[in-house]
Specification:
2 domains, three-stranded antiparallel β-sheet, mainly alpha, Arc Repressor Mutant, subunit A
Length: 135
């Protein structure tokens, strides 16, 4: 998979449509999928598809008169790129202040807190096992 570029918010919307569908989609399929979800003109969507192809986030192949688009990068790879960019831009790359900011400034449900605890416990176990292997 190619290295991912930072995506604009509108490009994320288009990519999520493609990630959610198992096979390649035509521009018409994507326009239909976005109909009612956005007020975008079909030409705008085609412009976004072209941008995503230039960024190498999408690939395409011609089938008859239509082009079929497919993701060349995974959602996880894009999240990693975006997360690293955000962390660097807003928190100088420091994870602890970022987490503290969100925990202190946003409403968390008990389910959110339980999930974070579970993730931290799993990370602790993984880190402990890696330390043991190295030691």
């Amino acid at each position: 998979m190619p290295k991912t570029s930072k995506l604009a918010q509108s490009e994320w919307i288009v990519m999520r449509i493609l990630w959610a569908n198992p096979g390649p989609m035509t521009a018409a399929d994507i326009v239909a999928e976005l109909s009612g979800k956005t007020a975008w003109h079909p030409r705008t969507i085609k412009t976004l598809l072209g941008r995503l192809v230039r960024k190498r986030a999408l690939g395409f192949r011609k089938r008859g008169k239509a082009y079929q688009y497919y993701p060349r990068v995974s959602e996880a790879a894009c999240l990693e790129t975006e997360g690293a960019f955000f962390l660097t831009k807003c928190f100088d790359g420091a994870l602890r202040p970022m987490l503290a900011h969100f925990v202190q400034n946003y409403r968390l449900t008990q389910a959110d807190i339980n999930e974070m605890k579970r993730l931290i416990e799993r990370k602790e176990a993984t880190t402990a096992s890696e330390t043991t292997k190295r030691g």
